[in-house]
Amino acid sequence: MSGKEESDSGPSTHAQPTREIIVVGGSAAGLFAALALSRQGHRVTVLEGESLPACDSPMEAFDLWERRGAPQTRHSHAFLARLHNGIRERAPKLYEELIAAGAAPLPFSDLVRGTFKNPELVPEDDEIVLLACRRITLDWTLRRHIEESTSARYRAGIKVTGLVAQLDEASGLPRVEGVEILNSEGEQETLPADLVVDASGRNTQLAQWLEAIGAAALEKDSEGCGIFYCSRFYRVIEGVTPPTLEGPIGGDLGYLKYAIFMGDSQIFSITLAASPGDDALRKVRDAETFQAVAQSLPTTGPWVAPEVSEPITDVYTYANLKNTLRYFVRDEKPLALGVYPIGDALMHQNPISGRGCTSAWISAWLLADAYAHHPDDALAFAQEIDAGIARELVPWYANSLEQDRAAKERDQVDNRGDDPFAFQRDDGTIDPKAYMRSVLVHGLVPALREDIVVLRAFMRVFNMLDSPQDLMAAPDLLTRVLAIWQGREEREPLRLGPTRAEMLEEITPPPV
Asked: DSSP 3-state assignment of 291?
């Protein structure tokens, strides 16, 4: 270990009393937390349940790492501008290491040059920069950075079995003082800690741990996303110039959502998502069917042409997807002192939005900054981070719920055989949900290809730089979208892909 890395801006530069901190979970959220907290001079120990083989490169890790506890690592990831900018500004050495590992910035200016002739850029466009990088490349680089450039300790093969706590007389709450574990030899240990960070993911056992120490029940909201999704990785053939990305990286056909994600080292991935109840579309889990669907879509088809790229993985499937938000602080009081969940252990959304790692980064730094402000006041620490989560992340959770509910409603309309965009009722009244579907599909979607102001606003929201409420709330923006929507009858329909009937004909083999 070489000690703390380069200095940071914000509270973590201030001298802080050294604390013993345990981070449960060694995936992205846990490593982000270890990075942020070790910056403050704390003694951080990361406890990871899985033991992964040592690898000399992210390419080797991509081939060998199987994360049973984090299956999403084998799927497409969008490293949004909020994450790209945060790493570049807060952890420049890590940023350099990611670039050296093959990651690449994807600036807004490049995107619009493939869509608009002589686009008029503004200074704020420099903030809109995604990071093209596979999830395993991020994890491999981040883990190596934690081990080599911080004082944090990483222990693999550790199962956390519970929390150690005493009653805090002043607050009447349990105060967590450490964790109980089974070590890699299967032996029981008690590890003391001033703070325990739960970064163990969406399958966290925090509710059971809290119940065991006498805390109130950990309540949550949880609602199905209404999709399953499949991902596959491809490599651009050596010497081939890949196609230009134009406009949004994906589309929504109602019965099918799709997107293409740029990775590192000339590797990209494609994700297809459909309703779990659509038995015919579940065939996309098959490699041959997945390829046929990808070739039929206007955004992904040029990329998966045999002369352009070749698949390098099987098709990975992810199902039983939910939007979940856990309420660790209620009425300004945490369920226990000295412990807090972050990342997917606190909140996770429909992964098709690509917000997971960015949300993990935000929650890790909210926690570290709150701890820097209140190292000796566990109640004030919990209140500050809870306020930050409500401000910075909960709006995105609400947005994900809203989008998924709208998608499920459209699926029901499609299944009835009705026109999902027919908003004029027989009695002359307007169906507000159908009207909004029409505005989004026949107004917003074409506007993203015709109006750089609309595209800019959309990309800022997509990249978590602006709040989701900002997109349609700005009067000028709504006027621009409605102007394009008003001309929907005169415009040639924008074809994002084949109809469901056309797609089924494409993927259904002829009768023998």
From this structure: helix
Buried-state track 365-376, b at ≥16 Cβ within 10 A, e below 16: bbbbbbbbebbe
Question: Computed over its alpha carbons, how large is the radius of gyration of the chain?
Answer: 24
- Residue 172 DSSP class: T
CA distance 234 to 506: 21
In this predicted structure, what is the pLDDT of residue 469? 83
Contact 161, 182 (CB under 8 A): yes
Is-contact 84 129, C-beta < 8 A? yes
Look at the alpha carbons of 93, 94, 95, 99 in this order and tell me if their dihedral is positive or negative: positive
- Start-to-end Cα distance in the chain: 65
Do residues 257 and 272 make contact, with C-beta atoms less than 8 angstroms apart? Answer: yes
Per-residue pLDDT reduced to its tens digit, 232-278:
999 999 999 988 776 567 788 889 999 888 888 899 999 999 998 88
* Runs of H (alpha helix) within 315-377: 356-373
pLDDT digits (tens, 9 = 90+) for 203-232: 999 999 999 999 999 999 999 999 898 999
- Which has the closest alpha carbon to 52: 157, 201, 158? 157
| Angle, in degrees to the nearest 10, between helices 92-100 and 135-149 | 130
